[in-house]
Amino acid sequence: MRSEPVKILATRCSNHDQHFTVGCDIQLLRLLFNMILENMSELKQLHIMQGLRSVTIRLQAQFITQILTMRFSIGLQQQRLWKDVKNEKKALLLKFYKDLLSIREHIQSRQVDEDDSEENEEDFVPNDDIPTSSTSGI
Questions:
Q1: Does residue 127 lie in a domain region?
Q2: pLDDT 10s digits, 16-30
Q3: How distant, in Å, are the alpha carbons of 6, 7, 29, 51, 109 from that of 23?
Q4: Residue 28 belongs to a domain
Q5: pLDDT of 63-91, one tens digit each?
Q6: pLDDT band at 59 (very low <50, low <70, confident <90, very high)
Q7: DSSP-derived secondary structure letter, 82
Q8: Is 72 inside a domain boundary?
Q9: The sheet that has 18-22: what strands, in order across it?
Q10: Domain assignment of residue 88, given as a range
């Protein structure tokens, strides 16, 4: 069950646009964090597309700082910027925000791992309990 790649168009104040394509949500979250942290004053907006869904997020340094400071701990609807978002975009943006929250939890739970597997195992199984050879022949 692989999802479609996520495409990002980052518009900077200098009108120098950057295009990114990432294959999975964890890469998306890391890319967004890096872009926001490194270019906080430069970024004007992010246009995020996945399949037929797309979201445009207008960025303001104060808004970005609030998000990073709170580490996505409170909802976008509590932000001042929320009033400026059109209704049809609110649902997409809120869904995207909830996705980021779940991805953030996923990353925190796997901080030690280096993303070797595609799926998140809820229960950790020690390597000792996993059979190393298959003895299914009868």
A1: no
A2: 777 767 665 556 666
A3: 6, 9, 11, 12, 20
A4: yes
A5: 555 554 444 444 444 444 455 555 655 56
A6: low
A7: G
A8: yes
A9: 18-22, 6-12, 43-50, 53-58
A10: 6-109
